[in-house]
Design brief:
The complex is a heterodimer of chains A (524) and B (311). With 524 residues, chain A is an all-alpha fold. Chain A is 77% helix and 0% strand. With 311 residues, chain B is an alpha/beta fold. In chain B, strands 6-7-8-3-9-10 form a six-stranded mixed sheet, with helices on both faces. A four-stranded antiparallel sheet of chain B has the order 2-1-4-5, with helices on one face. In chain B, strands 12-13-11-14 form a four-stranded antiparallel sheet. Chain B is globular, with a radius of gyration of 22 Å. The chains are: A mainly alpha (524), B alpha/beta (311).
Chain lengths: 524, 311
């Protein structure tokens, strides 16, 4: 019997292997696995429980891989059809809502699960290396598999509700982080409420809430991994986590199915979003884009890619709000003004550096991606300017939006110097000179690769750039380990050379980006 | 000369898109670039617009005497290109969109105000200046596209099938705007796969098919191609009883239409000139209102010059 849903399966499995992103991700993951195996076999004599070390590192990579790549992969299931305005056509066929949901999400789920299955024989070598049993490996893989199912169905729900892949991926990320944080923070919040007298410690409510929070905390994959990888693990292959995660996933799927018809009945025209930028003629003209700046491209990117004045104001306010929150949480540990200043400087240094890194990677992935996606690149290329002028104009727009993080970083440094440079010393300790240059070189390379990949990849440019970097660093680490350069000057020399190489590759990449820009504009 | 293309070839992997294309476009004229789908029109336009790089040793393309590859920055200052699909920043308002491009071309704030007002008036979008681009109808979006390419006051407009997808009214309005622009001294190079769309508008044509130019010449040259017989439409203020005999006397066949105020006139081009025909008309005491070449000949020529079937 021919099932219409098989047409969706067939289409996906014919197209997916041809996608560069898909190939790069698979090659990256399997490459990391292979390198980890190589490193573990070469260094097994130097460390205790090499199998456990090897398996833990693979588990971490897999967990991050599913959390990171899964967002966009699973989030695009229905949203990509909305963006291509083909969801209506699919609904007009013999495919039912259930068939569309299964056909679009299960295919993606199968491709990720197959990747884990493919990895399993290599990972089983951990048992031979010692320090971990086959039951532990199996139990951890079942946790990974159920977590994949969970992410897939959560993202599917967001994909049904939201019109764009990026929005669905962002919503999935927020919900995923919330689902991890809430069970961890809930017991503390309950304790706080009880200590303030807002909740009564007597009665059933508080113990029940605590038990529920602890129960859900124990089902979190990182908590389960820690338990499974403990020496002498006596649990079975399956745990409560498996059942809870499967039930949650089924609920997400049911909700997606229930809301599918409502959310896809009207097909709105998908286009670039204006965000919170008001019109000049509206009452909110204060937060309008205003007249175009002399640097027109900077004006456009600042307002329509980086969020404009509203997002800038939110960033300005977020730092003091964060400081107040952290200060309030740590009030019992702060004895005087000096300690408060040290805390402020550390919070500012860490958060502003993280935010700057996140904004830089976001800017790189969006620099020309929107122009390609909405087919506006030819209009820009036709301007009597060089590709470098265009890129610079756009980068200035993003840099303006990064100003709050940069200002707060400066403030954090000033406070740190005023309180004895403890934060700077910690940073210098963490990154020696080679490490500093290596980080700079790697960051420059990742940003350049992201811009280049975003010109011809539909999505995931930043992720693939990071993947490539991880593979090259893993390769270097494996080389260092295999050749016995683990310590001393040779280790520094290898990473110093890599820093130089990464920075050097950026120069030809800039020319390549310019050329690709013109080629892509000619094809649009 | 606005455009000079000589022996231009271009191939996408193994498929030849252009195969020795040669044609010229004079300054100030409206030139129709006509051919069936897949003939090589868009490839030629993209090369002229500096979006595609001509392949080395495969012909030359010059705009106002400048090589489109070597001097592309200068070429871009004098041209504007409107692609066959509407592309715009749909999240912007009409004014923001035009203001952005005016600023990107380096115009001062005062200049931008004047230019934006002028192009909005020309394209009849003044009342829409604060509307979002995405809310405009297809016809208005196309007019906005035209307004966008005019902000840098280009000498040459390269328009790739600007009327495709427009309803008849929007097409007519677009053609009127193009005629107005031509009156302002702009050279317009317009592509289409529908000859009749351009027959009233253009002064000259290039017909391209399968990557080869089949004809490059004036409208009259195209209409007369492949036949020795010229066909004209004569319109009179009132019927003239002696007209048939007068025209017959100079070797011209004629056929009355619409109560003898409209005549279809045919004559052998090598034997009779249009001056002789008009002389005979006046001698017969007729009061001519118009005397125009019959454009159905253009269609016939197009069909003869291009290959049957869709590529």
């Amino acid at each position: 019997m021919h099932l219409p849903v098989l047409a969706l399966f067939g289409r996906y499995f014919q197209e997916e292997p041809r996608q560069i992103r898909s190939l790069a991700i698979k090659a990256g993951l399997l490459g990391i696995t292979f390198l980890a195996v190589l490193t573990a076999t070469q260094t097994r004599g130097r460390f205790g429980a090499p199998g456990l070390r090897f398996f833990s590192s693979i588990l971490s990579v897999d967990f991050l891989f599913i959390s990171f790549f899964g967002l966009e992969l699973f989030g695009s299931a229905i949203a990509e059809e909305k963006e291509a305005r083909t969801l209506g056509l699919l609904r007009m066929t013999a495919l039912s809502s259930l068939a569309i949901l299964l056909g679009k999400s299960t295919t993606r789920l199968i491709s990720v699960l197959l990747l884990l299955v493919l990895q399993f024989p290599f990972v089983s070598l951990a048992v031979s290396l010692g320090g971990v049993s086959l039951t532990q490996v199996g139990a951890a893989y079942i946790v990974l598999a159920t977590y994949t199912v969970y992410v897939c169905n959560l993202a599917l729900l967001c994909s049904v509700w939201l019109p764009r892949t990026r929005e669905a991926a962002a919503m999935t990320a927020v919900l995923l982080i919330a689902s991890m944080l809430v069970p961890v923070l809930a017991p503390e919040v309950i304790n706080e409420l009880v200590s303030r007298g807002w909740l009564s410690a007597h009665g059933l409510a508080v113990p029940v809430m605590r038990e529920i929070a602890v129960f859900f905390r124990d089902t979190l994959p990182p908590v389960r991994f820690t338990r499974i990888l403990q020496t002498g693990y006596s649990g079975g292959l399956l745990g409560w986590q498996t059942l809870v995660t499967v039930v949650e996933s089924a609920l997400f799927f049911a909700l997606a199915w229930w809301s599918f018809d409502r959310c896809s009945r009207t097909e709105s025209r998908v286009g670039p979003a204006r965000g919170a930028v008001a019109r000049r003629t509206s009452r909110l003209r204060l937060v309008s884009a205003g007249r175009v700046w002399h640097r027109a491209l900077a004006w456009k990117e600042f307002n329509f890619a980086a969020g404009g004045k509203v997002v800038l104001a939110l960033k300005v306010l977020a730092f003091p709000a964060g400081l107040v929150l952290v200060g309030y949480q740590s009030r019992s540990q702060i004895g005087n003004l000096h300690e408060a200043t040290v805390l402020c400087s550390r919070v500012l240094l860490v958060t502003s550096l993280l935010l700057l890194a996140a904004e830089a990677s976001f800017g790189a992935s969006r620099l020309f991606w929107d122009e390609v996606r909405w087919r506006t690149l030819p209009m820009l290329i036709m301007l009597p300017r060089t590709s470098w002028d265009l890129a610079r104009g756009k980068m200035i727009g993003f840099l303006v939006s990064m100003a709050p993080a940069a200002v707060y970083l400066g403030l954090g440094l000033v406070l740190d110097v005023a309180t004895g440079c403890e934060g700077l010393e910690a940073l210098v300790d963490a990154l020696d000179e080679t490490g500093f240059w290596f980080t700079l070189g790697a960051a420059a390379l990742v940003l350049h690769l992201t811009v280049w990949f975003s010109l011809w990849m539909k999505s995931g440019a930043f992720a693939v750039a990071i993947g490539l970097l991880v593979v090259s660093v893993s390769l270097a680490q494996a080389m260092v380990a295999v050749l016995g350069f683990g310590t001393g000057n040779m280790h520094e020399a290898v990473f110093g050379f890599l820093a130089f190489l990464f920075a050097g590759v950026c120069v030809p990449l800039q020319f390549r980006i310019g050329r690709t820009l013109r080629d892509v504009a000619g094809e649009l | 000369m606005a455009i000079e293309v000589h022996d231009l070839c271009y191939s996408y992997r193994k498929k030849d898109a252009l195969n020795g294309v040669t044609f010229q476009v004079h300054t100030g004229e409206i030139h129709g670039f006509v051919g069936p789908n897949g003939a090589g029109k868009t490839t030629t336009l993209k090369i002229l617009a500096t979006l595609l790089q001509p392949q080395p040793g495969k012909g030359t393309a010059r705009v106002y005497g400048m090589d489109v590859d070597q001097e592309r920055r200068f070429v871009r200052e004098r041209i504007a290109y409107m692609p066959d699909h509407f592309s715009a920043y749909r999240q912007m308002t009409v004014h923001e969109f035009l203001d952005f491009f005016a600023a990107a071309y380096g115009l001062s704030l005062a200049q931008r105000d004047v230019v934006i007002h002028d192009v909005l008036r020309l394209t009849d979008l003044v009342g829409r200046r604060d509307e979002f681009v995405k809310s405009l109808s297809r016809g208005m979006q196309q007019r906005l596209g035209l307004a966008r390419v005019l902000v840098n006051d280009p000498d040459l407009l390269l328009l790739d099938e600007p009327a495709s997808g427009l309803d008849p009214r929007a097409r007519i309005e677009l053609m009127e705007i193009l005629q107005e622009l031509s009156g302002m001294g702009k050279t317009i190079f317009i592509s289409s796969h529908i000859l009749s769309e351009l027959s009233d508008l253009c002064d000259s044509f290039t017909i391209i098919d399968q990557g080869k130019v089949r004809l490059n010449g004036s409208k009259a040259e195209l209409a007369a191609l492949g036949t020795r017989i010229s066909e004209y439409v004569l319109e009179l203020e009132s019927p003239c009883p002696g007209l048939r005999d007068a025209l017959g006397g100079v070797g011209v066949e004629c056929e009355a239409r619409e109560g003898e105020t409209r005549w279809l006139v045919r004559f052998e081009r090598e034997l009779v000139s249009t001056g002789v025909v008009l002389g005979a008309v006046l001698a017969a005491g007729a009061d001519p209102v118009s005397f125009q070449q019959n454009l159905t000949g253009l269609k016939q020529a197009f069909m003869e010059l291009t290959t049957p079937g869709v590529d």
